[in-house]
Structures are given as structure tokens and as C-alpha cells.
Specification:
Blueprint lengths: L7 E9 L2 E6 L2 E7 L3 H10 L4 E6 H6 L5 H10 L5 E5 L5 H9 L4 E4 L1 H5 L2 H9 L4 E8 L2 E4 L4 E2 L4 H11 L3 E6 L11 H10 L4 E4 L5 H9 L4 E4 L1 H4 L5 H10 L1
Parallel strand pairs: 1-4, 1-12, 4-5, 5-6, 6-7, 7-10, 10-11, 11-12
Antiparallel strand pairs: 1-2, 2-3, 7-8, 8-9
Helix pairs in contact: 1-3, 4-6, 7-8, 9-11
Length: 246
């Protein structure tokens, strides 16, 4: 997958009720609101983002896409040169294909891929390398259904399985540290990176530029940053420059 020829810092645009929100530890109702998704997307692109990470949070919890209009507005507002990856509520191969045909570059599948692994191969058949499987870990095991149900799966083993099914990448989120600005779990990321050949996108807990650099050194192809950017802990350019120098 040529999506990440160089390490990328990817801003998160998480949408709930049509607004940008950042949750703490994946808990509903903990979110702080940051305004209009299109404005956020344009701000990050102006700041140098090559890729945006879009999440339909209502979709992630409800199991169906609830912020389609807001997501479509973002797709319509950004230039073709900006990569868009979308997760949250994508449950079927047909639904994923519709999004890919409408301008999304990569679909992120979480619960659907765990419950029906064949969906990964089905989408890959028509849209090669466009599926990123999202593995959310809590206490060292993969969790699903809005981070509420444990699966007993080890993240590295799960990543290997999905790579074999045709996943073009893995999004690995450590839910224990997500949104808390407490720092990352480098070892957990490195274990997933070592298990697969496809790109691993790391997410969760990034609080400092040093966290970004550490994830690059752990082998991640890219890192998704949300709260730290919205709270102004560092700028996108600062993070990308530090990673480029590392």
C-alpha cells in the first residue's frame, strides 16, 4: 500500500451530532466539542495535513452511519490530493464500496471485521488495499461494540489474521490511554507492527511531540492525533517536523 510512503501525522475529525468531538477513554458523554467538521478539516489541511481521519462516532456506537451529511460535506470540501479515511458504523461490503466510490480513500472497519472477517476480502476484491481494520485494545485484548465487549483476541494475532484476509492496513488504538493526554504505550504498538507487513496506523494517548516520535520509532507508518491538536499542545507542523527529523 503506497498510502504512507513517509511517516504521517494525521489529524482526527471525530463527528458526533454533526460536530467535532473528542472522547476520553472511548466513553460516550465525555466529549468536548470543537465546532464544524468542514472548518476543522480545512484548518488541518491548511496546517499541512496530507490525510484526514474521519470518524462517525454516533455510527460507532449505534451501528449505523448517523453523520453521513457532515462526512459528505467534508468530502466535498477537500481537494482530491488529500487522503480521507473514514470509520464508524460501516457494517457491510456494499456500504463500504459506496463510500469508496463517493470519495473516501480508505474505509476503517472495526466491529464488522471482527464479527464477519469475510467482509474484508469482499471489499478488497473490488477496491484493493482500501480496507483498514481497526483493532481497539483495552487491557491487552481487542474490544468491539463501542469498546464495551472483550473478544479475547491478542492485537498482534488479530492483525496477522486480517492481513491474510486482505486488509491494506491496521489502525491500532489503545483505548486505555485514548483522549487522556497521558502518553502512549509504545510496546503494544511495536508488537502489532512486528506481526504484519502492512502499514500500522497508531492512535490513542498522544500528548507530546515526543510521543509522535516514539510511535514512528516503534515502526508505525502514521499516527492519528486528536485531543492534543485540538487543545493546542503542539501544532501539526511541529509534530510532522519532529517526526521527519527522527
Amino acid at each position: 500500500m503506497s498510502h504512507f510512503p513517509e511517516f504521517e501525522v494525521i489529524p482526527a475529525v471525530d463527528v458526533q451530532d454533526g460536530e467535532v468531538v473528542q472522547l476520553v477513554g472511548g466513553e460516550r458523554g465525555t466529549g468536548k466539542r470543537y465546532g464544524d467538521p468542514v472548518e476543522a478539516a480545512e484548518r488541518w489541511i491548511d496546517a499541512g495535513a496530507s490525510t484526514l481521519h474521519l470518524v462517525d462516532l454516533d455510527g460507532a456506537f449505534e451501528g449505523e452511519r448517523a453523520n453521513a451529511a457532515a462526512i459528505e460535506a467534508v468530502v466535498g470540501a477537500v481537494d482530491e490530493g488529500v487522503g480521507l479515511q473514514l470509520g464508524g458504523g460501516i457494517r457491510t461490503a456494499d456500504g463500504a464500496r459506496d463510500l469508496l466510490d463517493a470519495g473516501i480513500d480508505r474505509v476503517i472497519l472495526g466491529t464488522a471485521a471482527i464479527e464477519d472477517p469475510d467482509i474484508v476480502a469482499a471489499i478488497d476484491d473490488t477496491h484493493p488495499d482500501s480496507v483498514v481494520v481497526s483493532l481497539d485494545a483495552k487491557g491487552g485484548e481487542v474490544v468491539v461494540a463501542g469498546w464495551t465487549e472483550g473478544t479475547g483476541l491478542d492485537p498482534a494475532e488479530a492483525a496477522t489474521r486480517y492481513e491474510e484476509l486482505g486488509a491494506g492496513g491496521v489502525l491500532f488504538t489503545n483505548v486505555d490511554v485514548e483522549g487522556r493526554l497521558d502518553g502512549i504505550d509504545r510496546e503494544a504498538v511495536a508488537a502489532v507492527v512486528e506481526a504484519v507487513d502492512v502499514p500500522v496506523i497508531a492512535s490513542g494517548g498522544v500528548a507530546t511531540v515526543d510521543d509522535v516520535v516514539a510511535l514512528k520509532r516503534a515502526g508505525a507508518a502514521a499516527v492519528v492525533v486528536g485531543t492534543a491538536l485540538y487543545e493546542g499542545r503542539f501544532t501539526l507542523r511541529e509534530a510532522q517536523a519532529a517526526a521527519d527529523d527522527a
